[in-house]
């Protein structure tokens, strides 16, 4: 197990390095000069003059070759220094620390809502295979996966905020503020979980040992809880892990629509301003979240699926 | 057993969070910032009690600081919150007026002396004086990347308690105008702690900073008891909320969460106009939308082609139908009421027949009857580039594409980020660019003309015009400045290499509870004047 863990942790670091390198050079090859983008983002068109561009380049040392800037960034990152935001003139880590708890709060809420709805729905759907409940569940799945989240967000705002006046439109001012963004974000994750839960359940329910259990006269509830669910859950754990990635990516859009002060809004601002240190910081947070959660999922998977242990993969 | 435990934890957590979210558990909006003194709470209901009147304003950019060294925050503090002030301001006729300075004089080629008001104290009771101005401007020069390039200030000296001298890096007659720029807003030295870390902005305005939440970007300010000027409003508190998304601002006004929001989507105007709770106010601003031809291309070296393309565009139709009435058609290149605007120039009013005639004279005819003009076997095509940030840009460019098609020109439109567009312009990889800039960034004629005509990136050069702009910059007599400016505009308009079809409009969605809201085009588009009141 220890060897497996070390191997996975090395892979996590490798992924983070690749992501940060790709991001760094992608930012530099996208059209637009960095100093111009920074000045434009803080002062608009009029702030962009040759004099100011030179000033910014000198101040931020942008005249050096990109590879030198990159090496400096990598070296500092290993020391825990992710640099200072070009746009906000504040340490990147400080800005992320301010915003990350909000993204986590939104993400966890959305994730739990999604789990609370999807898993029971998947189970019910499988237990009522090809009956009306199953069909309704499939229609729900189709709808939630077909509508883009920004559209759902607007519809929710119009209905729950403007028409019913139940919830605020945006911000993080009242406890109710999290409801709409969390539900919107959770909807996008539900379809794969429901489908996987349903398929996995149906798959297990068709296995010989389930028929044998029934033939031996075990209660149906005992069969479902002890045998079907236990064997159907492992694939769901993997899907849940992957959905964390969806949360982090989806939060960028949802946070912007609902003016939720998370890392997503910071990332969009940073991209507009070509604020490389801030973009790197935000992307690393998202990438770390994604790889770390997947690592945890793999460990959980190894723990609950004895087949992995016996085949040696989880050792 | 493990499986049961995991399932148990998952289901219990899910139920707890769903219940918490549904019932409205307490979300604590707090910042780890040392100076985030309070978590602000803005309810969807009006917060106005008998002794407190709160004006809630949406700010259309991300706010991560409340320091004047950040231009965005300085705009919020000066124009929106009413906390910090500048030495000079421009009235709605673009005339400079005393604010924290009472008079100013150019004492040498590179020196200006400003006399400061002697009856002003900062919100914490510390005196507003020359020492405070020196400290603040020097700090802003160090921190704000655009300030030195905008004002040319090199150093600040204290002459006496209420007199300060600015030394500039080059001769400038426009320093008083530059001292109205938001980046020169003054805050007290007590705004920072002993180690120099910023705490809260302590200004001189009619509202004093109460709190700023770095995480949510919510800034609150309450009425100051010791404001030096006269204001007439019953508002006791202003809450400024950072809301970068235009739709979110519009929806927040519709839902009664915000009293004033600007730059709302054009598509929402009808809904807002028909709403029982909101009014829509449209104003012309000093910002312009302008077209630039790529003068390195042979096509635009022909004056007839340049002018034909302007004649082809129906400017009034663009304002009324494409921009939903947000904006205006100038009589030249600037707002008509700017004292230095030349309104007696040819504006090339919409005339598609004249456009066709000029193109025919230039040799462009439809020889192959495909509906498009051609010359020497080459179809007349133009690539228009524009950018996303200003809402009218993509719309105007698309309308122009249609007008060009009407006279037989095959136009394409490419919309991108501004810095990407700027790079294409510098590279010369475009035919026509639709750009935007504000003509009152520094309210004086020379700044805008210098950027608009002289330091263009399109390859346009007119020595006589450049000379006039230099003279306009050099003279310290306002009448002469205006005259040189008008002459330069006449020449530029005649050359027709850069032209302004439409003025940028500011559109505000304002709650019907708000009264006395008057726009000042000389200020920033985000201005909420001090006297704005609530019923």
Description:
The complex is a heterodimer of chains A (315) and B (535). Chain A contains 13 helices and no strands. Chain A has a domain at 92-304: MetI-like fold (Orthogonal Bundle), CATH 1.10.3720.10. Chain A has 315 residues and is mostly helical. With 535 residues, chain B is an alpha+beta fold. Chain B folds into two domains: 3-23 and 284-506, Dipeptide-binding Protein, domain 3, CATH 3.10.105.10; 31-263 and 512-534, D-Maltodextrin-Binding Protein, domain 2, CATH 3.40.190. In chain B, 30% of the residues lie in helices and 23% in strands. Chain B has 15 helices and 20 strands. Chain B has helices at residues 2-23, 71-80, 130-143, 147-151, 175-178, 246-254, 269-273, 303-311, 315-322, 352-361, 392-406, 418-427, 445-454, 463-474, 478-495, and strands at residues 54-59, 88-90, 96-98, 101-108, 111-116, 153-160, 163-168, 207-213, 218-223, 237-242, 260-262, 278-293, 374-375, 378-379, 381-387, 410-416, 432-438, 498-511, 514-515, 533-534. In chain B, helix 13 (445-454) runs antiparallel to helix 14 (463-474), helix 13 (445-454) packs parallel to helix 15 (478-495) and helix 14 runs antiparallel to helix 15. The relative contact order of chain B is 0.14. The chains are: A mainly alpha (315), B alpha+beta (535). The interface between A and B is large, with 74 and 73 residues.
TL;DR of this structure?
The complex is a heterodimer of chains A (about 325) and B (about 525). Chain A has about 325 residues and is mainly α.
* Number of separate helices of chain A: 13
Could you tell me the radius of gyration of chain A in angstroms?
24 Å
- Report the CATH C-level class of the domain at 92-304 in chain A: Mainly Alpha
Net shape of chain B: globular
Taken together, the total number of domains of chain B comes to 2
**Widest beta sheet: strand line-up of chain B:** 11-18-12-17-15-16
| Count of alpha/pi helices of chain B | 15
Largest pleated sheet of chain B: 6 strands, mixed
The biggest sheet of chain A, with number of strands, parallel, antiparallel or mixed sense and barrel status, is: none
CATH architecture level-2 label of the domain at 92-304 in chain A: Orthogonal Bundle
What is the β-strand count of chain B?
20
Instruction: Tell me the Rg of chain B in angstroms.
Output: 26 Å
Principal-axis shape of chain A: globular
- Please tell me the CATH architecture of the largest domain in chain B by its name: 3-Layer(aba) Sandwich
Mean pLDDT of chain A: 86
**Spans of chain B with pLDDT under 50 lasting ≥5 residues?**
7-46
Terminal residue distance of chain B: 65 Å
Strand content of chain B: 15-25%
Average pLDDT value of chain B?
89
Q: Could you give the order of the helices and strands of chain A? A: HHHHHHHHHHHHH
